[in-house]
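Input protein
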Amino acid sequence: RETKALFEAIDLASPGAVPPEDPSRTRLPREAARLAERALRLADKAGENRRSKLHRIRGELFPRGKPQERVISFLHAVARFGPEAPEAIAGEIRAGEGWPEVFVVERGGAPA
């Protein structure tokens, strides 16, 4: 639809600039649709990767669906899941309603 409007605008501004039989009139809409489809697939894949990371983090925090009752080293989580792991873990802890929330993160050697 957008490409049709684009060609109409070109025809109004400069009649004959893009002849009706020009292959770009059919190729451009097709390429735009392919690009949009590819962008959706990539976004879905990125979302799936984030969901699987959160699922693994949840498994680390709550083995067998029960909260951890021991000290968890963030070095392991950061090495395995990346630098955003502590924030994701904090979000998972906050999401678990009714469970005790003791969460201390030490950064740079100083207690937070």
